[in-house]
Amino acid sequence: MMALEETGRTADEAVDAGLRKLGIAREYVLVETLATGARGFLGLGGQEARVRLTVTPGGERLIRARAILQELLTLMSVEAEVRVEEHEGGVRLELSGKDAGLLIGKQGQTLDAVEFLVGRILDRAIRDRTRVVLDVGGYRERRRQQLEQMAFRLARQVRATGEAIVLEPLDASERRIIHLALQGDDQVTTESVGDGRGRRLVIRPAGVKAFHSEQQSI
Amino acid sequence: MKELVEFIAKALVDEPDQVRVTEVEGERITVVELRVAPGDLGKVIGKQGRTARCIRTLLNAAATKLRKRAVLEILE
């Protein structure tokens, strides 16, 4: 287990210094006070406080995820700061700084690739499956809104024409956004068809049998 | 660029000390060759080549930053 000893004027200051070094919040460490520290007289005879911080498994996962990302960034000569937090049971990494924008790439391609590899490497390091989300300056959120707008627009079109629409191939997380956006629309149904990279989302008028509308869309 | 591919490959395979990466620099293009233990080939390629594709994307981004072009060859 990861642990660290730190000193300070008071135990609280020592804990804060340790957390800054680790880059995680207080909830991810167990604190043991090894020496409470004593104020000296006229700066003489004082004793520093000494604490030991033991990182919890959840905290270790955050520290490792950030370390993996930082290593990749360094090797890519990308200068950026990394913030890490827990998010929906997984790990969310947020990049900022001068080069952060470069990391998005064409249609988020580079961002997706870094996210995937950090996830893979982390899984192997901690021998557990973790959902990793990597974001730069709210890019993921903007992309989600774009996809939702597109979903609503296409659903209107399907309702108007009564014909199914087959979307361009999207990755699983993007298809999920569209399925969720349209699940409350009882006039259309959504479905993913095909395999692997060629898997596409289809928006159909509700009540039309899949086979029938498949023929229509061809 | 070599170090980038080496770091990723070593972190993904079961036998990291079998990972070999060489950089062959041409006039316009740098070829980064990756060799891993035969049993680890699937780990650096991934399902439907996804892992290999992601490594290539990172390599391209790193190369672009250096105003170079690079390709990754995974050798069997």
Question: What does it look like?
Answer:
The complex is a heterodimer of chains A (218) and B (76). Chain A is of the alpha+beta class and 218 residues long. Chain A has 3 domains: 53 residues, no CATH class; 79 residues, 2-Layer Sandwich (GMP Synthetase, Chain A, domain 3), CATH 3.30.300; 76 residues, 2-Layer Sandwich (Ribosomal Protein S8, Chain: A, domain 1). Helices cover 42% and strands 24% of the residues of chain A. Chain A contains 6 helices and 9 strands; from the N terminus they run βαββαββαβαβαββα. A 3-stranded antiparallel sheet of chain A has the order 1-3-2. Chain A has a 3-stranded mixed sheet with strand order 4-5-6. In chain A, a hairpin with a 2-residue loop joins β4 and β5. In chain A, α2 crosses α3 and α4 packs across α5. The longest helix of chain A is centred in the last third of the chain and has 23 residues. Chain A is elongated. Chain A starts with a strand and ends with a helix. The C terminus of chain A is likely disordered. Chain B has 76 residues and is α+β, with helices and mostly antiparallel strands. Chain B has 3 helices and 3 strands; from the N terminus they run αββααβ. A 3-stranded mixed sheet of chain B has the order 1-2-3. The longest helix of chain B is centred in the C-terminal third of the chain and has 16 residues. The radius of gyration of chain B is 12 Å and the shape is globular. The model of chain B has no long low-confidence stretch (mean pLDDT 94). The chains are: A alpha+beta (218), B alpha+beta (76). At the A-B interface, α2 and α3 of A face α1 and α3 of B.
